[in-house]
Amino acid sequence: MTSNRHELYARRFEQVFAWIEQHLDSPLTVEQLSEVACFSRFHFHRQFSQFCGISVSRYITLMRLKRASFQLVKNPQERVINIALDAGFENPESFSRAFKNTFGLTPSEFRKDPVWVDWHVHFQFPGRENQQRLKNMDVKIITVEPMKVAVLEHLGDPMHVNNTVAAFIEWRQASGLSDCSTQGTYGVPWNDPLTTPGPEFRFDVCGELNPKATGLVPENPQGVISKTIPGGRCAVVRHVGAYERISDSVYYLYRQWLPNSGEELRDFPVYFRYLELDKDHPEHAQQTDILLPLK
After folding, report:
1. Of 132, 293, 294, 271, whose CA–CA distance to 208 is shortest?
2. CATH class given for the domain over 3-127
3. Rounded distance, CA 73 to CA 80, Å?
4. What are phi and psi of 143, to 5 degrees?
5. HTH araC/xylS-type domain spans which residues (predicted)?
6. What is the pTM of this model?
7. What fold is seen in the domain 132-293?
């Protein structure tokens, strides 16, 4: 298969993946999805399995479980039955059975102690290549002001970052010094998770401090401290989609945009601004600004 034909083939499957993510709460059939991809319904199931590595029905189930997993942790007061129905399961029994068969925990057990390392393993699909959607990303150059932020430092396996995020949210809710609905939320990866040994990976979970906050963040059980994100020129591009695929957009900046831009990098890592965290967006609609500091 030539490069152009391969890209077209992959793009048609990306349309299918997007359609699935947008319609998880509705019935999804092979016939329907084959029409989205413009493939023959007689061959679609086999094509999907060969491209993605699993059957289309299993992929749909995993995407529904993925959505439900985030909701279980993000909304601890929400009833499990509501989360199950929102994820497209017919009843809580089928949801609980599928959840435990996949992750080895009941939804309630996962909510209490989410094991993100084992969880991530179930969502690795070698056939999903997203580079073709990154060729025409809109990169802008902006100037940002220095920003005082509250920070919870993560050190260790990147698969455990979500646990650090949960602790930071707990601090945010208790302290009142950084409201996610009015103050920005940022992430600063000090290392590349693909090349850094797990124990050495560093990631700062950051929240913009309330303008009324003065001085340093007081001592707290979570270990949140004060830092400053420096100001200056940045290249910025918007990543739309699941957070775990953000590395595709980061690599676009480094591999394709930067060499042709004539720009030089400032001595601060690329960092993320997570948009509209107070809104319940599905994964395909999540938006994150990626900021690459420039001289």
Report:
1. 271
2. mainly alpha
3. 11
4. -120, 125
5. 14-113
6. 0.66
7. Multidrug-efflux Transporter 1 Regulator Bmrr; Chain A (3.20.80)
